[in-house]
């Protein structure tokens, strides 16, 4: 089974870009919960600024 997770947590409320340290922590958390990260894709806004990441995960059981 595969799932899509959107990650958009920023360091500060006025920053539009997601916090990469929190993203790495989220990926580590996902991988310890019996899921495997298949891909991480950056999502940009109209001006080309990264606003979030899409994480495709897959169950390690499948």
Description:
There is one protein chain. This protein is of the alpha+beta class. It has one domain. The protein is 21% helix and 42% strand. Strands 1-3-2 form a three-stranded antiparallel β-sheet, covered by helices on one side. The protein is elongated, with a radius of gyration of 13 Å. The chain starts with a strand and ends with a strand. 6% of the residues are buried. The mean pLDDT is 89.
Task: Give a quick precis of the structure.
This protein has 62 residues and is an alpha+beta fold. Helix content is 21%, strand content 42%.
Explain the layout of strands and helices.
Blueprint: E1 2-7, H1 20-32, E2 35-44, E3 50-59
Antiparallel strand pairs: 1-3, 2-3
Organism: Microbulbifer spongiae
Protein name: DUF4177 domain-containing protein
């Amino acid at each position: 089974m595969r799932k899509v997770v959107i990650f958009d947590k920023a360091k500060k409320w006025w920053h539009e870009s997601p916090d990469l340290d929190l993203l790495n922590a989220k990926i580590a958390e996902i991988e310890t919960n019996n899921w495997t990260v298949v891909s991480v894709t950056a999502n940009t806004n109209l001006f080309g600024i990264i606003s979030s990441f899409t994480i495709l995960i897959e169950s390690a059981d499948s």
